Each structure stands twice: as C-alpha cells, then as structure tokens.
Amino acid sequence: MAKNENVQDLHLKNLTKRYDDFTAVHDLTLTIPAGSFFALLGPSGCGKTTTLRMIAGLEEPTSGEILIGTENIVPLPPYKRPVNTVFQSYALFPHLTIYENVAFGLRRRGIKDVDKTVKDMLSLVELSAMAERRPMQLSGGQQQRVAVARALINRPDVLLLDEPLGALDLKLRRQMQLELKWIQKDVGTTFVHVTHDQEEAMTMADTVAVMNEGRIEQMGSPVEIYENPKTAFVANFLGQSNLFTGTVKGVDGDLVAVDVNGLTLYVPKSKTNITSGKIVIGVRPEKIKVVDVDTPNLPKNQIVGTISDNAFVGVSTQYVVDSPWGQELSAFEQNVDPNDLGYKGNKVVLAWEPRNSFVLDPDEDLTAGIEPELVLN
Amino acid sequence: MTTLTKKRKIKTAYLLLIPGAAWLLFFFFFPLSSLLATSLKRPLGAAPEDGFAYALQFSNYSNAIAEYWPYFVRAFTYAGIATLVCILLAYPIAYYMAFKATKYKYLMLVLIVAPFFASFLLRTNAWKTILSADGFVVGLLNALGALPEERILSTSIAVVLGLIYNFLPFMILPLFISLDKIDKRLLEAAGDLYATGSQRFWKVVWPLSIPGVVSGVILTFIPASGDYINAQLLGGVSDKMIGNVIQSQFIILRNYPQASALSFSFMAVILVLIYLYLRRVGTKDLL
Fold this sequence. Notes:
The complex is a heterodimer of chains A (377) and B (287).
Chain A: E1 10-19, E2 22-32, E3 37-41, H1 48-56, E4 63-68, E5 71-72, E6 83-86, H2 98-108, H3 115-124, H4 140-152, E7 158-162, H5 170-187, E8 190-195, H6 198-204, E9 207-212, E10 215-220, H7 222-227, H8 232-237, E11 242-252, E12 255-260, E13 263-268, E14 277-283, E15 289-292, E16 301-312, E17 316-322, E18 328-334, E19 347-352, E20 357-360, H9 372-376
Parallel strand pairs in A: 3-8, 3-9, 6-7, 7-8
Antiparallel strand pairs in A: 1-2, 1-4, 4-5, 9-10, 11-12, 11-14, 12-13, 14-20, 15-19, 16-17, 16-19, 17-18
Helix pairs in contact in A: 2-4
Chain B: H1 3-39, E1 42-43, E2 52-53, H2 59-100, H3 105-113, H4 120-130, H5 136-143, H6 156-180, H7 185-192, H8 197-226, H9 229-234, H10 242-252, H11 256-281
Antiparallel strand pairs in B: 1-2
C-alpha cells in the first residue's frame, strides 16, 4: 500500500464536552502533526475516549473546533469525515466475511471495483488466507487486524484507535503493538491511539499526551515525559516515582541544592527555574542504587534507610525502604549481580545521580495519579 | 481422559436424555403413529358406530387432496397474508423496543405478552364485538365507503384480521430477541464506514435480524394455517380453512380415517413449505 501523501495536521481548538453536571473534556487545545503516531493516555474516565468519539463524530462537542488542515469537521456527520475508527472490541460485522468487512467502507462510497484494493489491504495485515472466513472464526489478534484493515482501506487522514488492544492477552498485545507501529510507518496515516496502558502508549507513540480529569497534563515524546514529568499525576501514572517536598538551599555550580527533612539532595539547574522557597523533586525507582552503608564512590544524592520489604521479580528486585522521616521509598535493582541486601530491617544507602532527578511544578498534590488502593496501603 | 471416565460421561449423557425421550415417545411418537395407522383404516359400515378396520386405504389421502384442496389453499393464503402483515407490524415495534425504548423496553414486553392472560377463545370472540355491523370500525369504514360488502364480520377479512391479532406476539418476540442481540456499536462502526441511515439498516440490522424473521415466520405461519377458531368465529361459510375441515371430520362426522389423512397431508405440505422457505432464505446455520 502506497504512503498516504496528503495527510494534514489535526487540530483541536478549545474542545469541550459537558454533560449535565460533569465536564468530560475541558477546553482541550492541541495539534497532532500529520503522519504521527499520537497516544492519548489516561485512566478511565479521564475524557480520552470522549475526545476520540468527538473526532470520529460519534459525540458532539459542547464547544470548540476540530480541524483537519484548515477545515472544521465538527458540522460533518461521521460518514462525511476523513476519519475512520478501530473500535474497542472491534465491532466487526458478524454476518459478513472478512473480505466483505474490509470492503464495507469502499462499497458504501459506491466504489465498484474493490477487489484489488481489498486484497492488497488483506495482504498488508497478513490475512489473505482468511478472506472468506467470518469474524467469529478468527482469533482475537486476527480480528484486531481485520478491524485495522477495515478502517485503513478508506485512506483516512486520521485513524482513531479506541483501546484497540484491550481485549488481547499480554503476549499478543506486545506483538500487535509492534505490528501497528509498523503498519503506521508503512501507510503514513496519522494515528490517534487511546489507551490507559502507559507501556503501550510509550512503546507505540511518537507523542504521548497524558490526560487527567478532562485536561492534558503533559505532552511530549515518551522519553521526555517519562524522564521529566512535570506534574505529580504524570510522575505517578507513568511508571512510579519517589517525590520529595523540600526547600531550595542555594545554587551549587550546575546544581540546585534542596533541603529535604535535613538532608541535601541535588537537581540540575537546567531542570527548573525555582531558585528559592518550596520545591518538589522526584526520582524514578530504577535510577536509584541500593547499596551497603559505607560503600565508597557513591552518587551525590544519598538517603540512608531501612529495608521494609523486598520482592524479587526476575529482571530486578524491588525494594521498599523507609526513609529517616518515615516516607516509604521505592527502588528497583537490576538483577545483574544478585546481592544479599534483601533482609528486612537492613540499613542501606539509596543513591542516585543528581541528573536523574526531576522537578515538578509547585503546589502539587503528590498522590495524584496513584491508584487508590496504593494510597490506602 | 481414561476410557473409563469417558464411557461414564457418555452414559450420563444418555441418562439425561431419558426424560425428554420418554416424553417424546409417549406424547409425540405414539399419538402420531396411531394417527398414521388410523389414516389408513377403512370404515366397516356407513355409520361411525360400525367402527373401522386396519387396512392400507390410501384413497383416504387421494380423497383428502382431491376433495379438500381448496381448503388447503385457503388456509395457506390466509396464513400467508397474516404472516406478511405480522412482519410489517411487528418489525417496527420490535425495532423500537430493541433500539429506542431503553426505559420502557420491559414494560412493552409485558404489554405484548399480556393478552395471553385471557383465553384465546374469549379474545377472538371479543373481535366479534369490535367488528360487528353496528360497531365503530364498520361504521367508520362504511362512512368512507371502504367496504364493498358493507360488513367485515363473516368475511375473509375478519378471519385474516383475527389471525394477525392472535399471532402478532409470536412474530414480535423472536424479532425483538434477535434485534436486541445486535451490538449497537456495529451501527456506529457502519456509520464510521460511510453507511447512511438506510444503509445501516439494510446492510447491518436487517441481515442480522434474519434469524428472528425466520423463527417469527415459522411460529406465526404454522399455527395460523392450522387454526380453525378464527374462521369459525369470525368467518363466513365460504371462509372455512383446512383446520375447520379436520375439526368437523373428527368431532362432528367422526370420520376418523379421513380426518387423520387430512392431518397428515396438512403436516406434509407444511413441512415442504417450511423447507422451501428456509432454502430460499438461505440460512444454512439455522437448519
């Protein structure tokens, strides 16, 4: 299948969806560049699916505009939009063969000679042999590919994917993630992918927008938002984080020194504009070394604590360590050379390089984005 | 699995079949065999009291067809018309219940089943009043000059109306079940794939409701074509259906062999018609 050359940017402008007493999507403005793989990531009820359905035309915005290039598509009914959707649980037509499912969109637009296009599409998703079967006779992964083929064959400017991998088991999901990514590169269509699975979003997307309570919390490349989360929600929802509230002590060369409960931790100056007063800094558990007390040549940020729990998960050991001020810290130790630190009650040093710290916007609720049951524990 | 537990499982399956099989044997197979035997008997005298003897009197069958074929034709015509009208009436109702009536869906279901609480005979008798010559319906239609015979009661129209009324629920219920089962997201998907409103119906909803239409047709057509109450209570002398003939042969004339032969012929024709119908609809999955 040839690359789709005249794809245009998708713009959402002040897009809002309000139900009676509930705002699902709050004044959303963003641009999704043509030909990119864009992921809308967030917990259930964050407004990501509503946003997708508004783009598809299945839901009417309360206010705001959706533009493809320069054309506002809000007034258009779904069947007139240059947009197609891969539905959650696929919504394949059970009474039609795979061939007819894929040909459905072309036939509705009155295209007579569909045979070559359909066969090309089926071979792209490697289902040529299944053409005459019914959806029920296919495995979950195969049905998923039919759903993609059925939408893509219409050469939409934008392909919307609504949790397309949610119904698949973990192994198949990983495989389909790579396949979808490959198909997207091949056809060059803009993909907008809605998911609550952070790993899925990071694996597939060029740009990830993390959504919470109807707003975009942060948007950027997977590396950018993972390494430098700007809000506590992003820091906690996208992987795990140890967050510390402290006061700026001063600037020490390239580093900002922060007093956290009497301890001095450092963050790179390049990561913040805050040079005095309150500051919230954080570090990912896998950046932290867990070592014996008195180990020489440690990174500059150090906290001495007591192991309260540990779990061996194969590739790594996950430690829960109590800090002197009672905060539970989390650290993952790669299973390169298994060591014997895993005794509960052992005193250990948690150490990490200042460059691996990040700084959050001030006045953050530090528990945002942590799943409720974790907060209770 | 060892062969022993496998054998045991098969044994259990057969054991579970016993009640159903016994029921079928006593209440379906035996009566049917006795009916078949009776249909080939020959009378021993002019009066039914003289009794009947076992024989192979196939003339009972040729007689049934030769003498009573107009009643067969009439029964299938009336039932056919009633079934068609039932589809036309039931489809929108079932569609509304399945797709639109979110809150009142089950209330509507209850209302559709409610007439069954009154006896079939009573309800059909009530139509006598509704369609009577001095009633509102006939009065209105006569005022419009719509009735060539100036009455409805004792015409074929009354019989067909009675059949439609009595068998409509048997069309609505299977249609509702098959429409209700349709995943509403399929309609969204069809819309997303450029289908207009009417294409969504004809390309998605209608084909997926075919199983409901088929069972509705079978449930309506078979009992309606064998019915005799509607023709007896609402129809005239010239509106008698095959059910009336069988009833009078059995109960009034007590010509049991002839009545049995008529019953068997009727069953055979129904089976052929249903078979042809299912072949025509092409629902291999249903057979």
